[in-house]
Amino acid sequence: MPELPETLLAGRERDYVGWFLTAKALSPSTFGSAEIDHYAAAIAAEGGLRASLAYYRDAAESARKNREALRRRHLTVPVLGISGSHGSIPDMAASLSPWADNATGVVIPDAGHFIPDEQPDAVVAALTAFVAP
To answer: 96 Cβ partners below 8 Å, 6+ apart?
Structure first.
């Protein structure tokens, strides 16, 4: 028997994807109808809905494993945390700093949750500046 979220969303994948992409992006026009159709078709494919929700279903276990890993070792390589000015994590570098000895952060203006889709040129500039200063 499918999990409750899958039961509620099955057959309504386009409504779900359309809502999610529109609600989480700063601009509701970030994703067009063709892109929403593409993502909805992927989620509607066999196993797609379950796979797309697995991230949320497994969040508590993932957090537990991350805490265990943190006790063993930190990242020593430089790490870049990219936040959107209107995203849910205002300072990604601060979120990463418990795991990384050298975390740098950048906030991309005029971006919500889908930063590369919303501001691709700014993301490229941030990555370029980080990798090749």
So the answer is: 79, 81, 103
In this structure, what token pair is assigned to residue 28?
A: 């509701």
Is residue 71 within 8 A of residue 97, CB to CB? The reply is no
**pTM for this structure?**
0.84
Residue ranges in the chain modelled with pLDDT below 50? none
What does the domain layout of the chain look like in residue ranges?
A: 1-57, 74-133
Rounded-to-integer distance, Cα 96 and Cα 94, Å: 5
* Phi–psi pair at 13, nearest 5 degrees: -60, -40
| Residue among 27, 24, 29, 30 nearest 88 (CA) | 24
For residues 72 and 3, what is the distance between their CA atoms, to the nearest angstrom?
A: 34
- Spatial distance between the Cα atoms of 95 and 75, rounded to a whole number of angstroms: 13
Q: Phi and psi of 127, rounded to 5°?
A: -65, -40
Which bin fits 71, alpha (ψ -120 to 50), beta or left (φ > 0)?
A: alpha
